[in-house]
Amino acid sequence: MSEKLNFVNDYIADFMSSNFPEFSRFKIKMNEDALYFHNNTNGYKHEIFVGLGELTYPDHKIVNGGFHCWVGVNFVENLLMELISKHDLHLNQLHPTIWFNEFTIPNFSPIWDSFKQFKDYDLATNKEILDKLCDHYKEIINQHFIPFWGKYSNIQYINDEIINKVDQMKLGDYFGVGDLHFKKLIIMRICKNQNYESYKEWLLNTYAKEEKEMKNSKEWNSEYNLFKELIEILETQY
Fold this sequence. Notes:
Elements: H1 3-19, E1 24-28, E2 31-41, E3 44-55, E4 61-73, H2 74-86, E5 98-99, H3 108-113, H4 127-152, H5 155-163, H6 172-175, H7 180-190, H8 196-214, H9 218-237
Antiparallel strand pairs: 1-2, 2-3, 3-4, 4-5
Helix pairs in contact: 2-9, 7-8, 7-9
């Protein structure tokens, strides 16, 4: 990490610590320089990514790069991450259950666009702009992120209002892709969703149809074995 990027990272981290002491910074292996913050509240993890970038041409400039925000249902994510690690699957290191985006809140675009005012400034050499960016994050967190976390930190609400009402082909807009079907299956089982059995059978049939073509794929077999173990855990323990 460059000295300039390190300065901006530490400045924003100190600001978050002072204004939102319930949040702590965490790092992920794929990008240890990135700014991630989270807290745990009643079984739900609230997380923020502060996007920063270092432009090397024409000069080294630290610029704002937007944000990500999500809520993780700890039970869902912890169970899934344990199985992903056990079966050596290469899926997301982050643990979002529901994303903060244009599908989960009605006014996402103006919130996202509001950060464009900072895009042309070098945050490492413009302290006034860096302070304004920090204050803007504080405003967005209070006005938008916190209500979002409050709304979606409820596994029954996710089951009732997303899984039961959103078309299967569009669920990735809410949950992300990759491990969507595993997350959906866990939530349906925990919430005693009446469609759990039919969804499980649909997944079993899907794997059965793929098996002849994919049986030599290490990644596919890892995913299939994870799926079978997940079903066993859900149906013997929950």
